[in-house]
Model the fold of this input.
Amino acid sequence: MEKRIIECVPNFSEGRDKTIIEAIASTIRESEGVRLLDVDPGEATNRTVMTFVGEPEAVVKAAFKAVKKASELIDMSKHHGAHPRMGATDVLPLIPVSGITLEECAELARKLGKRIAEELGIPVYAYEAASLRPGRKNLAVCRQGEYEGLAERLGKEADGADFGDRPFDEAIAKTGATAVGARDFLIAVNYNLNTTSTRRANAIAFDVREKGRPKREGGKPNGKPMKDAEGNTIMLPGTLPGTKAIGWYIDEYGIAQVSMNITDISKTPLHKAFDEVCRAAAARGLRVTGAEIVGLVPKRTLVDAGKHYLRMQQRSTGIPEEEIIRIAIRSMGLDQLAPFNPREKVVEYMLEDAEPKEKRLTDMSLRAFADETASESPAPGGGSIAAYMGTLAAALGTMVANLSAHKAGWDERWEEFSDAAEEGRRLLETLRGLVNEDTAAFNRVMSAFQMPKATEEEKAARTAAIEAATLYAAEVPLRTMRAASETFPLLKRMAETGNPASVSDACVGALAARAAVLGAGLNVRINAASLSDKSAAAPLLVEAASLEAAANAAEAEVMKCFKH
Done:
């Protein structure tokens, strides 16, 4: 299951006092489960933008603490800066990164805004996807009149805050109001052109950006901009919704670029924007030679791009994630101007690398894994080995699918085998996770046995913990049995219709899958036998027996394909 991660980018109305900035940053940095990625103070704007990520609950908690700290340290009655603002924490958007939708982020934002208002006494306006009133989606509308205009707006039905609305008072005079919202991830990307002309870069930007360019009299570039009946300039929209773009010249690189913000990656993913800028540039006699991502991107952005370019090549997309991302980097020239390291540019990887490294079996070399299994420790044992056998079964099925997708003369079947390879990758990842989880389940049982048992209450708690851990230790290998069983249809299809030279590989996969199912079944039985609640054990044993019988039959069917 994809890990749930969101980003939070609060803007605080202090960009000069390093002590205050560091105090707020430390509040975030010391919050459990989040990683502070960036602190960007601006002296002229007197504003600091901080960026941090983590699982939703952890991010929301850290955001609340940061708002509280800012309200204690920043006095808005004394604040002056070049940037529009209305509060100590001026804006606080929640942004989906992975495993969570924009609407879910919007609901989290509303709950966070309500808590800020109730517990800190700060009026909160809900904006963007979290907005509660028609016409309040735009941040500029929520912040109209800025801090100085709050006295006129608060406590009024039409202009008051969504949460904690009340007439302007001494407390609000210090904290101001805050806008809490949810928006999609913004990607900042520059497209490198083989020209030094800012004017031509601008022309491409106007071709593609959502706003487009002014409609001119006679359709001539130097014609007067045309107006509508209300006197507004008539615009000819560009081809990419959810984008903003301009052209500029970069002295450092000696080239012109189209600089773009993609504000809605669901409508315009990165690869679609890249291809369209390439098309628009070619129409004007220019070439896009590469692209430069400014800041961070969600992993799905690069994975989707890599799969897009693989499909254009009629190549299988059922390959490891690292290879897919490498295709994306090369296809869009993300490393043209400087090395592009996904571990430093992808939000999920940065968060992953910041976490303490636990000792995982699947991170070991084959030799280390074998030695760990051969040691005098009881874990890893048969359960993890069974899950790894299933992983190898899925890997072999995926390999045959990928070889078949790339087989000479089978070009018209590439998509069929690509889909099969993607299914194999899904099963491989599931089973690989179960390699680690089976050992974790065993360790949970051992921990339960080590609980204190001096008092009757401790004895009861220990007994309940042992029972729960044992049930879990029986359920994990049952999940291995289910996942390994799912590899048989893939292996059979590959043995029957895949690359004939690889039929033996598919058959070896079936043998490994059968071993995985039967081996995991032994672990289900031995753990189920230790359960005091036999009514909980019974359905596990019935399903395990059914999966074992089906695995024996499925393996025999695949082996029939080997006729040498």
Notes: The chain has 19 helices and 13 strands. The CA atoms of residues 452 and 458 lie 6 Å apart. The longest strand covers residues 89-98. The mean pLDDT is 94.
